Amino acid sequence: MWNRPRFDLKVRLTLRVAAISAACFAAISAYFLITADRAAHARIDDIAAIVAKTLELQQGKVLWTASPRADFPNLDPVSAYVMTPGLCLAFRGPAGEMIQRFCSGAPVTADLPPQIFTAFYHGLFDPGREAARPVILRGTKLGEAVVSVDPAVQTAEAWHEAGRLMLALAIALPLLCVLVYAALARALRPTHMIRAGLERIAANDLTARLPPFDLAELSAVRDVFNHLAESLDTALAERAELTRKLIALQDEERRHLARELHDEFGQSLAAIRALASSARQTAAQECPSLLGECDGIARTASGMMETLRGALFRLRPPDVEELGLVASLEGLVAGWNGRSRGETRFAIRFDGTFETLPATISANLYRIVQEALTNAAKHAGATKVNLELAMHADEIALAIDDDGRSTDPVAKSGMGLLGMRERVAALRGRLSFEAGLQGGSALRVVIPLTAAGPQALEHAA
């Protein structure tokens, strides 16, 4: 299945905040540039109006004094008041010819705008646009007053102002990201506790609970988590109780079936053997040719008796409560070693004392080992099986390793593995079945001592 790449939530949210902040700064910068461009054009429009009015007054003065020396147009008087770096004043005649032009030089600066900003600014605005105002006297248009600003100067001024915003952005944005990341890390710190709680739930520790959180959203998650843990604990307790009842019913049915087989089938086989022995005595006196058939009937009855004893042993094992778990398991292993006739070797080792375990725990452990040995010998074809049962400070551990065929557990053991899982689940334990490191299979069962009752806990302590 395709897995999507994972990103840290704090990093993702911080990047989103940074992107939004950068977009806001860009919008503010664009608004500032637009406002500055409009102000610059409004300024040269006002200057053009002043120049046109000044020229009109000059021409009126010439006509009023009837001076033979027509000092028109004269841009020097107005330039002393309105000239700024890069500003150009001009008078254009009625035919469009430039009669007079006066420009101030651009300041020499080392802080030139980058080419990319210059291209962007020239593409977005028109820094070299002229502002023209007509010069009219007595209804006659004498020409136009033309005012413009050097595009390089206007671009440099815009870059100077935008550079301050970019400097503020360069300082504020990383600081904002650090503060947002720190705030998110603090706000999301409880998620580590939520993850730890989920891991405990996954490990079948249903006592995991989450403490109250400051954030309302995480508090809602905490309430749902605790409710889920309580519900799972209750459901598993009910399931375990039902499983115990089903297992007890199954064991009772096995004991009943064992009694029926022993009382009915066993007596019938004993009667057949007795009749075969009697028929053999009669045949030996009257019809020796029937001795072979009588012996065959006796052998068949003996074989069926042996098979019946094995079935009865599996259906109704020795009383674990009376013999003890250790003695019962040693007898089980000895029986398998005896029936294997050298084909399979079983070995068992104990670590700890198990005399104080309740009968329910001992019986379930015996059944689990019995089913595991049957799987290893009959289904996996193992030639060597090692068992180890150990009692630790807070749990009972069972390990069974064999050198048989390492196949699918369900296909190998059928309903047997399911039965073992149900017994382990009823004891609130854990079961794992997997391939061994050097071939074969490895069965691991861990049962907490809390399932074994207070006696076992006191003994272990």
Automatic annotation (TrEMBL):
Keyword tags: Kinase, Membrane, Phosphoprotein, Transferase, Transmembrane, Transmembrane helix, Two-component regulatory system
CDD domains according to UniProt: HAMP, HATPase_UhpB-NarQ-NarX-like
GO CC terms, sorted: membrane
GO molecular function per UniProt: phosphorelay sensor kinase activity; protein dimerization activity
Matching PROSITE patterns: HAMP (PS50885)
Annotated InterPro entries: HAMP_dom, HATPase_C_sf, HATPase_dom, Sensor_HK_TwoCompSys, Sig_transdc_His_kin_sub3_dim/P
Transmembrane spans: 13-34, 165-184
Keyword Transmembrane helix: yes
Top-level lineage group: Bacteria
HAMP domain mapped to chain residues: 185-237
One Pfam family matching this protein: HisKA_3
Keyword Hydrolase annotated: no
Record localization: Membrane
Name used for this protein in its record: HAMP domain-containing sensor histidine kinase
Lineage, highest ranks first: Bacteria, Pseudomonadati, Pseudomonadota, Alphaproteobacteria, Hyphomicrobiales
